[in-house]
Amino acid sequence: MTMRLDEMNSDEFQAFLSFAIKHFADEQIKCGNWKPEEGISKATEEYEKLLPEGKNTENNHLFTIRDENQEVGMIWLAKVTDEKGFIYSINIWEGNQGKGYGKKAMQEIEVLAKEFGLKNIGLHVFAHNQLARDLYEKLGYIEKNIKMEKSL
């Protein structure tokens, strides 16, 4: 595996944005946070707040994950403060999952975060995404907050 992180170009960003909005909406609906009819509009609104200047939004670093010349996924790191970063998104595309790309991308983003002067990185993971939770725990991420809810 010759994996690397390349800064997203404009076409890659547009493809990511389309995927990310739908994916985020689907995850929020699956958790019961949003109703299906409001998912896309709420997700679009959220992304417009987070990336008002698109891929050129200050303190946001969006990367395409490549193995050789093949695009295998993407990762987005934001610099929240001078010392704290946040991974808003990491996705390994279908057909490339389970091959170690996610783990390697997380390790590479940590190297870049240190180069940006960051001292720690946070992330959010949906409770139902056990595969991702297991990966993050293996990489040394710990749970800081747990939100629980019961439907009546």
TrEMBL record:
Q: Could you tell me which residue ranges the N-acetyltransferase domain spans?
A: 3-152
Pfam family for this entry, one: Acetyltransf_1
Q: What is the official name of this protein in its record?
A: GNAT family N-acetyltransferase
| Species this protein is from | Halobacillus shinanisalinarum
